[in-house]
From TrEMBL:
Gene Ontology BP terms: mitochondrial respiratory chain complex assembly; protein import into mitochondrial intermembrane space
GO CC annotations, alphabetized: mitochondrial intermembrane space
Protein's gene: Chchd4
Subcellular location: Mitochondrion intermembrane space
Composition-biased stretches (Acidic residues): 22-31
Name of this chain's protein: MIA40 protein
Domain CHCH: 57-93
Molecular function via GO: protein-disulfide reductase activity
Main location: mitochondrion
Transport listed as a keyword: yes
Top-rank lineage group of the source organism: Eukaryota
Mitochondrion keyword on record: yes
Stretch list, region Disordered: 11-32, 95-129
Keywords tagged on the record: Disulfide bond, Mitochondrion, Oxidoreductase, Protein transport, Redox-active center, Translocation, Transport
Amino acid sequence: GKDRIIFATKEDHETPSSAELVADDPDDPYEEQGLILPNGDINWNCPCLGGMASGPCGEQFKSAFSCFHYSTEEIKGSDCVDQFRAMQECMQKYPDLYPQEDENEEKSSKDLEATSVEASAAKEEKGSS
């Protein structure tokens, strides 16, 4: 696949490296260009996905997210129920990796603190502009 193993010898390490750092390449699809690449494709390497595109349910996530992204239904994504169900079923098999939040469960005080801190920071940013 995408990985290549290269073995270095002692001799390889005796000479200084001739590697050159290349300036940012705007055409590099793996650079942090956001969720959607300029050509309209999904950037699966975007940090905004929080690693969801990899891991044991990565393929199910990609399938569901792609379906939603490219959906042309009146209610966007309404044609993707099967893909989202498969993703959810996969995630339920790995509760340590994908913690499930119960909608009826009250937020912990830690969550409430974080929310209020974020809200305060947002207000401060608004006020300072």
